[in-house]
Structures are given as structure tokens and as C-alpha cells.
Amino acid sequence: METESGRGYSPDTMAEWGDKGLGLSAGPGGDHGRICVIANREPYIHVRNEGRIDLMTPASGLVTALEPIARTSGGLWIAHGGGSADRETSNERGVLSVPPNDPKYELKRVWLTPDEEQGYYYGFANEGLWPLFHIVHTRPIFRALDWSYYLQANEKFAAAFNEEVGEQRPVVLIQDYHFAPLPRMIRRYRPDAAISLFWHIPWSSPDTTRICPWKNELIEGMLSADLLGFQTQYHCNNFLECVDRFVEARIDRESISVTRQGHTCYIRPLPISIEWPTRYEVPPETIPDIRRDLLSELELPPDIRLGVGVDRIDYTKGIVERFLAIETMLDNHPDMAGNFTLIQIGAPSRSRIPRYQQLTEEVMQVANRINAKFAGARCKPITLRLTHHGPEQVFRFYRAADVCVVNSLHDGMNLVAKEYVASRSDGGGALVLSSFTGAARELTDAFVVNPYDIEGTAEAIFGALHSPATVLHERMARMRAIVSSHSVFEWGRELLEQTIRYSGQRAIPGEVTAAYGTA
Ligand code: F6P
Fold first, then answer.
1. d(CA 284, ligand 1 centre) in Å
2. Which residue, of 168, 275, 277, 342, is most buried by count of CB atoms within 10 Å of its CB?
3. How far is Cα 482 from Cα 417, in angstroms, rounded to an integer?
């Protein structure tokens, strides 16, 4: 299939990308071993459901982004095995080949105890670091016990890595705030490894970051990587300021690197992206077909305008603010009532954490209140679907929608915005996008809003729904050109090439081992 970027999407191209398209065996890094992705979330979860085993793909932008890289590089993905049938579907080392129906790479599942999962994932990562780095007025909670489980779980991932990785020099791509100490721990096992850590969420200024009692340890652990990637230059600058304030290290502003105990780590903005073209295109189905079928499935009138929101239920995503903006739009433009619905897909997330339970309640209450207010109209303003949807389903909603609303209060990137653009191969649709997302730096043809400004967001949604089709097509074409020319393949290639290049610049084993100390 030919794409707008001119790059084909054939098995040959993928193989080429995986072998030499990345240029991984050339350059100062020399020969490399397996490419190993370490991310907390697994790309395939096995769940026991009334006696049968279901295979699920989690609702995570990160999985959408990294899966294609794992497939094309044929390497290894190490993740927490969190599904109720994960053990019985993997071998004695927790390993299985995936995708299960068409194996392309290996998944190794790490088993965490309930206490470890609670302290490392729910506690330190998601009640501490998540609110710390997303500045949305939810107070971070830092508990010493969570911190110790966070370290313990990171140790387990380092040991799992060491168990699977072969003799050759490994290339490791670590994902996100779950793993700040991991580069240092991996380095202890394999001083020769080429290591990158990609920080998918924002990084805050020193004034915010200093709240964390273990900020120094976090930063020092991260600096054992060869490359630290952030979504934007702004996040890189914040990180460097934190290094300056909190740890003993030498910052080189010219090469944008930090040297600590003889090891140099390079800091780079590397905005993440998505697969292009998408695998979820259904060519024979036209947009009018999809719209007609979806509206009839949802028992909605066939001629209404459709908005879509797709999120994990998370307080950073601005879901309540989005509903209030819809209410305001209908108040300000009463003829829209009965002629518009926002389909909100909300994947349940982190539901053991009280703040997430409160938010789920609030989302339902606000939707019910607004729907009751417009009860006389022929359709509800908000169609709420609080359940997991697979990517194929999500893409049908994207393609049917006149407007996609992404009004996160703060977001590292927000891959939903890019997925929506990728889904619109017909050139239609409009994107309303928060200025506080990483995606807003690239997708300047979106209708950009301040998500805290409810009136402004309401008018932007109204404007997107009432702009001339030619204007919308031009805007969408420009956004598609941007996403297609910087897909997750370009992102992955840049990240891995730089990791190998920078790791090749340093002396290997023995000489520097002592410098990494213990975590
Ligand atoms: O987008 C940031 C992120 O934390 C990803 O790392 C993660 O995959 C996603 O959100 C979903 O969160 P969780 O894995 O906690 O469900």
C-alpha cells in the first residue's frame, strides 16, 4: 500500500527496517545484540473470563506506539505480567511469542507480588510520580514503603533482563516513569549495554520536582542511561535544571549532556509518534457506511453531528471539563441540542487508587446531569461508554466522528490526537486539541484550546463543527503530512541510533563498572 509519505507498508519494508534500515550494526557502537523494550504495560494480556481465556490489547498510547517497533525489530519486550491467565499462557521463564496468532517477537512477563504491584505501580509510580509531573492539582503522595517496592520491582526487571539477554552487546529501550532507577541497575549487570530511557510523561521544573523525597536517586538512576529522551525541549530544559539543582554532575550545554562519575548521558527531545499508516484502516468501508452502522448500533438519529473523546479515565485528560464544554456549547447554541452527541470512550484505569474511583463517579454524575438537562432533545449530548475498546473499534469511532476532542489538562504527548489524524485517510474530520499536550507543538492546524477555559473550548468545538469542509480538509492534510513524515518508525530509528552512537563513545566494561555503584 502506498502512503502519503511515499513509504510503502509491505512485509519487505518492515523487514528492511528491522534489519538494516535502522543502521544498527554500523557505527561506533559496533555489533549489537537483541533490541529489548522494557515497559511496565504488556502489549498482550491474557485474562480468564468465565472459564475461557481472552486475549486483550491494553488501552495505552505507549503500546500503540511501541508494538510496531517490537514487531519490526523482532526483539524482546519485558513487562509486568498482570493478566489473570498470564502465567498459564507463558513458559516457565514467563516467555511467550507474540502476537500469539502471528509471532514476531518475544514477550517476557515479570511476576510481581501483590505488595510490589501496590507499592511500585499504584503507589510510587501512580500516586507519587504521575501527579508530581502532571501539574493538575492532584496532590502527589510519597510513601517510604512504596519507594522500597518501587526499587524492588525495578530490581526484578533488571534481573529478568539479565536472564534473557544474550552474550552480544544489548540495546535497551526503557519506557517511562516506572523505571527511573533501572538504567543504573541494568548497568550493574551489563556495563556494555546501550541504554535509553524514554520519559513519556512531562518533566517538571525544580520547584515542583523537589517535592519528591527521592528526587536525587531518581535523577542519578536515570543518568546511567546513554540517552534520555523527553517529549519536548521544554521537558529537557526542566530536567537539566533539576540536575543542576539536585545532583553533583557536570552539565555540558553545548552537547546537551550530563557527566556524572565518568559516565556521560545525552538529553534529547524525541517526540513520540504512532505507526503510519495505521493497521486499523478498513478500506472497503466508507465513512458514510461506518457512520450509518455506528449510529444505528448506538440507536442514535442518523443525521446528527458526532464528537469523539477517547481516554483512559484519568484526571489529567480533562474529561469533566470536556463535558462542561459540551454543555456550554449547547447552552450557547440551543439548535445544537438533539443534533450533536459526544461519544466518550473511557477505558477504566488504575481503579484501585481512590482518586481514580472519585473521578469515575464524577464523570458519570456530570454526564447524567447534562443528559438530564437536555432530556427533551432527540439525542443525549453525551454517550458514555466506560469500558475497554480494542483499537479496531476505537478507529471506527475516530473515522465516524466530525470532531475529536483532546483537551488534556497536561499531557506528555497524547497519542490519541495523532491516532485520530492517522485514521482520517478520507481527509475529513477536525481536531480540538489542548495547548498543554506535547502534540500541540506539532499539530498546529488543530483547533487549539486552553482546557481550563470552558467557554473557549465550547466555541472551538462549535467552530470545528461549522468550518467549511475545504478549510477542514486543508488543515487535516497538513496534520497528516506532519504525522506521516514523523511516524513511530522514525522516532524509534532516531532513538535507537542515538543510543548506540552515544554508548559507542564510551569505554566499555571493567573501566567504568565501579562508577555505577549500587542502586
Ligand atoms: O502515557 C503515559 C502512560 O503511563 C504510559 O506509560 C502507559 O502505558 C499509559 O500511560 C497507560 O497507563 P497504565 O499503563 O498505567 O494503564
1. 33
2. 342
3. 12
Decide if 197 contacts 183 (C-beta within 8 A): yes
Q: Is the CB of 322 under 6 A from ligand 1?
A: no
Q: How far is the CA of 227 from the centre of ligand 1 (A)?
A: 21
Lookup result for grid cell 529537557: 236
Q: Nearest to residue 406, comparing CAs of 460, 364, 484?
A: 460
Residue with cell 486475549: 55
Q: Parallel, antiparallel, or unpaired for β 305-312 and 340-347?
A: parallel
Which residue, judged by its Cα, is nearest atom 9 of ligand 1? 60
Q: Which position has the grid cell 507543538?
A: 441
Q: Judge if the beta carbon of residue 125 lies within 6 A of ligand 1.
A: no
pLDDT of residue 21: 35
Q: Report pLDDT digits (tens) over 91-141.
A: 999 999 999 999 999 999 999 999 999 999 999 999 999 999 999 999 999
Counting from 1 in the atom list of ligand 1, the atom nearest the Cα of 41 is 14
From the list 21, 17, 24, 508, the residue with the least C-alpha distance to 226 is 508
Residue of the CA atom closest to atom 12 of ligand 1 = 60
In angstroms, rounded to a whole number, what is the distance separating the alpha carbons of residues 341 and 302? Answer: 12
Q: How far apart are CA 3 and CA 450, in angstroms?
A: 33
How many other CB atoms are found less than 10 A from the CB of residue 147?
20
- pTM reported for the whole predicted model: 0.90
How crowded is residue 444: how many other Cβ atoms within 10 Å of its Cβ? 12
User: Does the CB atom of residue 178 touch ligand 1 within 6 A?
Assistant: no
The DSSP-derived string for 127-185 is: IIIHHHHS-SS------HHHHHHHHHHHHHHHHHHHHH--SSPPEEEEESGGGTTHHHH
Q: Omega before 277 cis (within 30°)?
A: yes
Q: Is the dihedral of CA 33, 35, 38, 41 positive or negative?
A: negative
- Other beta carbons within 10 Å of 211: 14
Cα 19–Cα 35–Cα 484 angle in degrees, nearest 5: 65
Gap from CA of 333 to ligand 1 centroid (Å): 37
16-34 tens-digit pLDDT: 333 333 334 333 344 567 7
| Cβ(317) – ligand 1 distance below 6 Å | no
Q: Is 206 helix (H, G, I), strand (E, B) or coil?
A: helix
Asked if 126 and 353 touch (Cβ cutoff 8 Å), the reply is yes
DSSP string of 7-33, one letter each residue: ---SHHHHHHIIIIIT-TTSSTT-S--
What is the rounded end-to-end Cα distance, in angstroms, of the chain? 48
**Which atom of ligand 1 is least distant from the CA of 175?**
6
For ligand 1, whether the C-beta of 201 sits within 6 Å is: yes
Closest ligand 1 atom to Cα of 176: 6
User: Which ligand 1 atom sits nearest the alpha carbon of residue 201?
Assistant: 2
